[in-house]
Amino acid sequence: MKKPRKLEAEPPWPAPPAAAHARLSRREFLQSTAVAVSATGLPLAPVLLRASAPAPAGADAFPEPVPVVLEVNGRRHELRLEPRVTLLDALRESLGLTGTKKGCDHGQCGACTVLADGRRINACLTLAIMHENEAITTVEGLAPDGRLSPLQAAFIACDAFQCGYCTPGQLCSATALLAELRAGQASAVSPDVRRPRPVVTEAELRERMSGNLCRCGAYPNILAALRKVAG
Amino acid sequence: MQPFFYDRAGDPDQALEFARQPDSHFIGGGTNLIDLLKNEVQSAARVIDLNRAGLAAIVPAPDGGLDLGALARNGDTANHALVRRDFPLLSQALLSGASAQLRNMATNGGNLLQRTRCHYFNDPGFTQCNKRVPGSGCAALEGFNRMHAILGVSEACIATHPSDMCVALAALDAVVVAHGAQGERRIPMREFHRLPGDQPHLDTVLAPGELITGIHLPPSPFAGHSHYLKVRDRSSYAFALVSVAAGLALRGGVVVGAGVALGGVAAKPWRIPGAEACLLGTRVDTAQFDRAADALADRLLAGARGFKDNQFKVALARRSILRALQLAGQGTGGSE
Fold first, then answer.
1. Cα distance from B229 to chain A (closest Cα, Å)?
2. All domains of chain A, ordered by start, with CATH?
3. Lesser CB count within 10 Å: N end or C end of chain A?
4. Which residues on B lie below 8 Å from A56 (Cβ)?
């Protein structure tokens, strides 16, 4: 969440021409100003990770971007990324899939939750290059034909969000949760893990969603949406 | 995060070969390493991706136990049918840790090697941390040390090991299997992690470049009577203040075997070999059993020493030992 904060200060760079600015989305505007920031020698914004690294002297000792093939929401993307680029940054900065959110960037909030081969993971704590030959699904891929999934519809029906920032992560997480329940997976509150199928209780749903924080506190409505779909 | 090179290992031998390069680090799930790299707590010239190196299988062992691949995910391990049936204590401990997302990423080998969550270690803004910068001092000794250790500490470090999995593994007498230049090594859990002493930067006995390939679980008599009790500040997705892995073997309600280990109290899962002997011969659900549990707490907590903010852990650990044993005595999953 550093980019908006930078813009609150008096900008040390010239404003983009008004005509160009008018055509830019908020995001493109932020990106163009971030490039300007780097030109002034101020600290680089995370958005610049996608730019090619400068070639230093003795370039063979410096990790250059390497080819990375990602399959996201059914589409194949051939990218060139530095090995250090996280899956989250690749999705947002290289593929423009900004539905997946960067909350804490340290695996503590779940806003970056995506599905890798159907399994929920935190995209902020894994490298993009580790996910070649996997099917990645982001929130943009949950309604591939433009029709909301039952879970998405339940989130709207139950008003399961306020600011909406955590919602893409909540939706991806809850989508996987439903599959985990169908597969009979246990949780920390399952009374006896030796029983093959957990009983779906409120405690089970709360525990299974604990990796997704909501600072607006929409938990009761998120839970209601889940109950609607999970039974 | 500083730039690094990336190698993808196709098998364990290739991983070991890659690891001969300077400042190279294995990456499994990445849930701890990438965080440390982002915070610049740790550096890496090169990361070696183990995710295509095999090692993810969970298979019955010749001795009747179970062999867990080092690259098997914590979530998959917790939910493996044989783990749930024969080692519910391990399943419960794994499910108590982190979140579903992180458990889908974190590997068993990585869990063994995760670093402490001491605030002073994880934030290079603090200049004193002997674990991060040997010889720099310990800011936690006089700092905010509510989460810190009460056993096995030194003046150099009072950090805890944060794992839940490892506590259950200690109670289950698990063995870590590692491969390195000298071939295979089998390291009992209780010898795997080091106490800080004057070298707190060394968390484990693993040699540089050595690769954890698996964890062996010997057959366990505790499946019917075990409990993992985790006491924490919020009911999920938090590290333990104190945890107890308790397993009992009963014959006619009388204890004939026991394994009890503590988490959240030391730089390693805390177990005293043979300490559980005081439980033997007692009948669960009796005052005699409770007194034996208290005697076990005396042994486990001998020498325990609280600091400014964590004095409470000594009493909390004692009560948690009793509670975990009572629940284990009622049978895995309680009396339902």
1. 10
2. 64-141 (3.10.20.30), 150-230 (1.10.150.120)
3. C
4. none
